[in-house]
Structure formats: structure tokens, C-alpha cells
UniProtKB/TrEMBL annotation:
GO terms for molecular function: metal ion binding. This is Mycothiol-dependent maleylpyruvate isomerase metal-binding domain-containing protein. SUPFAM superfamilies: DinB/YfiT-like putative metalloenzymes. It comes from Intrasporangium chromatireducens Q5-1. GO terms for cellular component: plasma membrane. Residues 17-142 form the Mycothiol-dependent maleylpyruvate isomerase metal-binding domain.
Amino acid sequence: MPLSSPREDGSLPFIDHLRQESARFRAVLAEADAGAQVPTCPDWHTDDLLWHLTEVQWFWGEIVEQRITHRTALAAVEAAKPERPAERAALLELFDRASHRLAQQLSDTPPETELWMWADDHSAAYIARRQAHEALIHRIDAELTAGADRAPVDCRLAADGVDEALRIMRGFEPEPGFSATPTGPAVTIALVDGFHTWTVTPVRVTGTDADGDTWDVQRFLVLDGPAEAAAEVCGVAGDLDAWLWDRPVIGEITRTGDEQALAQVDAVVGNAID
């Protein structure tokens, strides 16, 4: 797999990845049949997938450009969102504008800039990271929809994607008002091409957040490194990243150890994430 070169501060060039993955996504869908079903999102067809990433990238471009820092401004952002074009050509044009603006605004914004974000990290740097991974996963969706060959996945980006999927998209950090009850023993997740491991414990999270929303979800408690575990899931970064997003893998993911422990991991991974 190809390798990306870390920046001087050790971070990955997420904005470059955002541009590259978005360009591949666009190129594949531009040639896809409009009526093709998205295998990984069965309720969508080609243009639904194209519109989804268009509106996601438009939304975050607006957050960055307007320097929005508080959720009270989100209603105005949503109200300003352009209508979905009916024609493919117009939809592609809107995607081009939204994608270019997002990457350019992130390039022009200091990474430490505080911005609104649903995750705990409210920096422009995290928005760049999140959007690079969003584009990567939907690029895979586009290739599956069009029946196109899977382009190589940068292994450093994918390894970071495994970390983000485990810690943020499927992870849980203990906080007041919530309880986390283990549903199974610890399991090791290991990269064979990144020489990194995580130890995850599946938990059922219940509680009520600050907005009054009630939670009853399955998540992981995550620790870096190996620990005493009942089972292990092992594979290359690109496959583990795809697996954690419930996307098809190219190679083989090896699963060893207690089957019940692995089943509880599958129960967490089986929950859909947008």
C-alpha cells in the first residue's frame, strides 16, 4: 500500500487526502449508472451517494468559512444549504464547488482554530481529519456502486482511520451521567502493516446527555497496546478500517480466540454509523 508522508508536526496531510479521495469519489460516480444501488447503503442510488458527500462537504465548508463555534448557529447553516440539483451535471458541479471550498478553507485556517464539532475535539485540524476519512469511506462506496476497481488505500491514513473509528466513531470515554457495562471481555485489534495494537472492551452505554437525549448504545472502551485479551482481530490497516465501517474488505482479517468475545465485538461493529 502507498504511504503518505507525515507533516513536520507528525500529523498526516489530511487535506491532501481529502482532495485525493474526493477526486476519486467524483471520477467514479461521474461514470456510474444513475440507477445503480449503493451496496453499502441499500436505500441509496448513485446520485443519492453523490448528494450525501456534497452536502456533508458543503456543511463543513460553511462551518470553517463562517468560523462557527456554537451549535446555536447550526440552524442558520442548514437554512442556507443549497437545494439538491435534479440533474447529474448540476449535482457534479455543486460537488466540485463544495469540495474545493472545504479543502481551501481548511488550508487557509490554522489547525488549532476552534470550530463547532460534535466530537470532543473542536479544532479545524480534527475537521480535516474527519473529512479525509469521510471521503475515503464514501470513495469505497462509490467504487462498489460503479463496480470499479478498488484504488489503493494509503496505509497510514487507514491506520489513523482504525484509531478514529475505534476511539471516536465507535468508542466511549467515561463521563458523568453515563454508565458503561461490559458485554464481553477485552479483545485485541492488531495491524499487521502498522505494528500497532488496541485493546477494546465492548460495553453497553446508557444515560442522558446535556441535550436531554437518552442513550442506549453499544460502544468500545479503548486502550492503546496489547493487554490480556480473550481474542484477537488482525489484518492490514485498509481492511480493518473498512471492516470497522462495515464495508467489504479486500484481503483476509484473521480472528482467533473466544468466539463469544468476537461476537460481542461484531455486535458493536454491526451498528451503523453515518
